[in-house]
């Protein structure tokens, strides 16, 4: 096992879970980090947040809009270019459009858009990532991690569109866990069972990031669930 880490790629970085997970991994020697989302100026703030804890972190920020399925390969080709000779070691798929969706007023097109971001988007990133992760299984600890929510199994009608997507996404990553666990790539889900807020003892972004790190290190299940009692 190499003492040098490969790269962490966060797809759907933001001020909450995305940048907190990147900061936690940077503190565990993941110095090469690539952050993706739609807003380049916001991504720079995420990068500064990580550098404030790990000044030596080498961070790139790149645009991706997962709702535009046909644009995803070009966005991931830009990640390949940014990676250069650094092997990909961990992917966090974290992007989501979060908000209310009223049964049965929610337009079909909006449900399709949500599915594109969270299910097709996750699959597209997995198609890109898994072959690279398999290549480094003998000397790194490759993983594909995905942020989920307890609504994947206990849906909330007022956010039914997000719930449907989380169910599909969970099923996809669980399949990936079953297929790749014996092939050396760990695929798993971080299941957040409540609204993320600083005041929550469990469901705060820092604690979720620590739980994500523990999941990555221990690799003993396909998910960890984080809930405030
Ligand atoms: N926050 C909660 O209360 C909560 C609860 C349970 C589960 N979760 C899950 O946690 C994950 C997000 O964590 P977070 O809420 O703390 O957010 P976050 O990590 O702060 O940011 C997530 C980022 O996803 C990006 N994104 C949204 N749509 C996108 C698109 N079409 N293409 C690319 N990127 C996109 C957004 O950036 P841009 O707008 O710049 O693209 C956003 O900043 C999601 O999987 C969510 O379902 C959140």
UniProtKB/TrEMBL annotation:
| Keyword set, alphabetical order | Oxidoreductase
Tell me the Gene3D superfamilies matching this sequence.
NAD(P)-binding Rossmann-like Domain
Q: Which GO terms describe its molecular function?
A: oxidoreductase activity
Pfam families, per database record: adh_short
> InterPro entries this protein is in?
NAD(P)-bd_dom_sf (IPR036291), SDR_fam (IPR002347)
Top-rank taxon, per record: Eukaryota
Quick check: keyword Oxidoreductase in the entry? yes
Q: Which family does it belong to?
A: Belongs to the short-chain dehydrogenases/reductases (SDR) family.
Protein name listed in UniProt: NAD(P)-binding protein
Per the UniProt record, the source organism is: Aureobasidium uvarum
């Amino acid at each position: 096992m190499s003492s040098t880490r490969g790269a962490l790629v966060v797809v759907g970085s933001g001020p909450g879970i995305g940048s907190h997970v990147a900061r936690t991994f940077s503190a565990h020697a993941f110095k090469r980090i690539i952050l993706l989302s739609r807003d380049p100026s916001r991504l720079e703030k995420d990068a500064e947040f990580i550098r404030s804890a790990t000044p030596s972190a080498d961070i790139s920020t790149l645009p991706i809009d997962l709702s535009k399925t046909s644009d995803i390969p070009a966005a991931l080709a830009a990640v390949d270019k940014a990676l250069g000779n650094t092997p990909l070691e961990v992917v966090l798929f974290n992007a989501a459009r979060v908000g209310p969706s009223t049964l049965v007023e929610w337009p079909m097109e909006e449900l399709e858009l949500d599915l594109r971001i969270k299910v097709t988007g996750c699959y597209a990133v997995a198609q890109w990532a898994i072959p690279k992760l398999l290549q480094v299984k003998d000397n790194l600890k490759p993983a594909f991690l995905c942020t989920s929510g307890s609504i994947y199994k206990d849906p909330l009608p007022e956010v039914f569109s997000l719930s449907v997507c989380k169910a599909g996404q969970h099923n996809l990553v669980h399949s990936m866990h079953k297929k790749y666990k014996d092939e050396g790539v760990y695929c798993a889900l971080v299941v957040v069972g409540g609204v993320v807020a600083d005041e929550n003892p469990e469901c705060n972004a820092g604690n979720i990031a620590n739980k994500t790190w523990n999941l990555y290190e221990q690799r003993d299940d396909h998910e960890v669930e984080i809930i405030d009692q």
